């Protein structure tokens, strides 16, 4: 039940986000005097609607998005009544059209920023100084956290009853102990600990020196065995190595909590990081298409592959099921930020495509005026329809691919 509740809540949150996206278009268009005839949440048959002034508001039967009908978005729109021609969107100044078209993405950004600000105050944001690369991790002090077991294979998974117990736990080491030597080999950081362990043999007894509350001690352990690649070649051949059954406790906190004022700066910094990550993720989309196909045809699902709204909702359900509400809200933030950026891409039929054309017209008119030539007028959207259809076709195929992968081979972050 908790999983289904989480899926429903996340899907509802996305629907609300999309509704606010369209509300951004609606409110700014009305504020500038443009005529908006319809605002609906969902698609398909109308379930309920009402009219206020010149606009019909309502709910459609398929809750997969929404739309806002602004009269005369392009000069080629042929459903504009003669009386409405002065209020047709395409007749308004380019800056006003830009505000209206960008308002949807601005709504997504506003949702993401408000949610991030609240998270910064209540739970904290990821620490930018937290060690994330292998080189940074190896420079951390060798402060250990005991594992429950030693996983014999070269993989990350939960322990089972069949897995051997952690040698460190059996040797009565404790969480927070700082390892200083293994069999007489000095250890100054976590990288030294890995090197010292690789010099031992699985099943061998080892004297592990440590500091506990600044007091030195020694533990005798019988090392276990796992499979790992060479330390200097993470992509190299995997082989048996000695294991102590510990992980690293980083010396820096994973998250930083802020006050209401400090959270503004923390939110801005994290938003910059999100912008970079979103850019990198969008660059990787084409190369991830084969991985999605592999997942659909029975291969292992790469956790770095794109997900659809279906996949995001499933992860949201897992988060609620495992009481990981922070993950739930951070996923909501990331998705809104991504949608906001994606909608601003200069491609029709996206909002960014309309903005790009508006500014192209403005720039072209300026150039022609300087050349003392007649204004070439508005762009003919009909001539761009083949390109628009191509974008719709590619986008639709990619959406279908991600939805299929999320249904038949979804990404899971928790063991169920």
Automatic annotation (TrEMBL):
Residues 160-214 form the PDZ domain. GO terms for cellular component: membrane. It is found in: Membrane. Its main location: membrane. Signal peptide: none annotated. The chain crosses the membrane at residues 99-125, 387-408. One of its GO terms (molecular function) is metalloendopeptidase activity. Belongs to the peptidase M50B family. This is Protease/peptidase.
């Amino acid at each position: 039940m908790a999983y289904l509740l989480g899926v429903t809540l996340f899907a509802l949150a996305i629907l609300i986000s999309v509704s606010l996206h369209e509300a951004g278009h609606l409110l700014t268009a009305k504020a500038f005097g443009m005529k908006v005839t319809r605002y609906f949440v969902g698609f398909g048959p109308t379930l309920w609607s009402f009219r206020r002034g010149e606009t019909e508001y309502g709910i459609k039967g398929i809750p997969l998005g929404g739309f806002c009908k602004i009269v005369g978005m392009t000069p080629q729109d042929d459903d504009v009544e003669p009386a409405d021609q002065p209020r047709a969107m395409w007749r308004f100044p380019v800056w006003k059209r830009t505000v209206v078209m960008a308002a949807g993405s601005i709504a997504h950004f506003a949702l993401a920023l408000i949610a991030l600000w609240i998270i910064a105050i209540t739970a904290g944001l990821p620490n930018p100084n937290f060690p994330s690369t292998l080189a940074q991790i190896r420079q951390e002090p060798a402060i250990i956290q005991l594992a429950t077991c030693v996983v014999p294979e070269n993989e990350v998974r939960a322990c089972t009853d069949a897995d051997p117990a952690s040698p460190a736990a059996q040797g009565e080491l404790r969480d927070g102990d700082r390892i200083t030597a293994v069999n007489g080999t000095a250890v100054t950081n976590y990288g030294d600990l890995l090197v010292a362990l690789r010099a031992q043999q699985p099943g061998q007894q080892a004297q592990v020196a440590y500091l506990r509350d600044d007091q030195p001690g020694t533990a005798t352990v019988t090392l276990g065995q796992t499979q790992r690649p060479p330390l200097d070649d993470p992509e190299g051949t995997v082989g048996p190595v000695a294991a102590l059954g510990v992980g690293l406790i980083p010396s820096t906190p994973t998250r930083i909590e802020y006050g209401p004022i400090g959270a503004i700066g923390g939110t801005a910094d994290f938003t910059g990081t999100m912008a970079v990550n979103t850019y990198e993720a969008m660059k990787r989309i084409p190369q991830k298409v084969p991985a999605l196909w592999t997942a659909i045809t029975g291969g292992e699902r790469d956790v770095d592959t794109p997900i659809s709204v279906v996949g995001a909702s499933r992860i949201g359900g897992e988060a609620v099921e495992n009481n990981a509400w922070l993950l739930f809200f951070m996923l909501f933030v990331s998705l809104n930020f991504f949608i906001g950026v994606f909608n601003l891409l200069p491609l029709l039929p996206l909002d960014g495509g309309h903005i790009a054309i508006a500014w192209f017209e403005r720039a072209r008119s300026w150039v022609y005026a300087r050349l003392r030539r007649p204004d070439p007028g508005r762009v003919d959207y009909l001539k761009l329809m083949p390109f628009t259809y191509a974008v719709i076709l590619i986008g639709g195929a990619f959406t279908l691919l991600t939805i299929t992968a999320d249904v038949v081979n979804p990404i899971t972050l928790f063991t169920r």
